[in-house]
Amino acid sequence: MVPSEDAAPQLDVxxxxxxxxxxxxxxxxxxxxxxxxxxxxxxxxxxxxHGRRTVVLTIDPARRLAQSLGLTELDNTPRQxxxxxxxxxxxxxxxxxxxxxxxxxxxxxxxxxxxxxAEIFSNPFYQAMSSTFAGTQEYMAMEKLGQLHARxxxxxxxxxxxxxxxxxxFLDAPARLSRFLDGRMLRLLLAxxxxxxxxMFSLVTASFGMFSKVVQKVLGAQLLTDLxxxxxxxxxxxxxxxxxxxxxxxxxxARETAFLLIATPEPDAVREAxxxxxRLREERMPLxxxxxxxxxxxxxxxxxxxxxxxxxxxxxxxxxxxxxADVLRAHAALARQAVREQQVAARFTEAFxxxxxxxxxxxxxxxxxxxxxRTIGAAISRP
Length: 383
Known about the structure:
The chain has helices at 13-18, 35-50, 64-68, 100-111, 114-121, 124-132, 136-151, 169-181, 184-194, 206-219, 221-234, 238-253, 267-282, 305-318, 322-351, 370-380, and strands spanning 24-28, 53-58, 79-80, 92-97, 156-160, 257-263, 287-295, 357-361. The protein is of the alpha/beta class.
């Protein structure tokens, strides 16, 4: 018996998008499952059908969102999308793409004086951390979400989470930052600067002297000097980093936020979605449902794979029906794929039977324009 994809409760996405109490929709899941397209389609539908002033924040470096929305470019500032159908609804759609370094720079400028900011910007360790360090992108995505929320300009913020190795990185970013700021080594490096020492090697004790020599030998004197300067320059900002991270985390736990898991009917994607659903439950974050993308359906569902195979073989034996036999073989292959996809999807449903779900039929071509986004939005939001 093949598990039915309808075993889960039906996800009503339109109800979420129309609810004025929902101010944030977070699309999350493994890489390559259609998060960016889904986020854009939801934001477009919220503006066109529900009259909401919406901004979609993407972290997709491929710039597919800009292309599909007819924009020449996206950057760290929301840009209004023109040419969409919002005359009757009164909604608006804006889009932006996270610039990790620019966001970090803006935080520094906002919370330090110009002299201190210039010192931080020139520090080699800051230059590396703000551009390439693992986890910085995820934290800055949280930082940008907090900024957008605090401005109060948007009825709805739709977030396309970073294409990380693990979808959990987005949720873990604030905790990782706190661990970094509270780390023993960082505190030791900061101690000399706080005590007014002229050098990071102005040692308070002999034991710390031994520690610093070991670290210097492992990391190199210049890197350690850069790190110490970076820590000292950012010391006054540490509390603000942590406080904002905690505030954004609380926002993600609030009822104004709705998490949507995005997956495809592939084992790795469904496994990641299930892992994320478990984590959201542990963290008491509002999981609204699962969107299963690129699902294959049969035009004639009552004709299964075995029946198609037998019929194709019979026609081949009779001769003169090659085209029909080929169609039947193609139908058999698609039927087998549909069964596999239902079985894979059922793993999530069995683990989380109360989580609503909706499936989106695989499209014949990649989505590359607003009409394509409307098609996806309609498929996700079907009653």
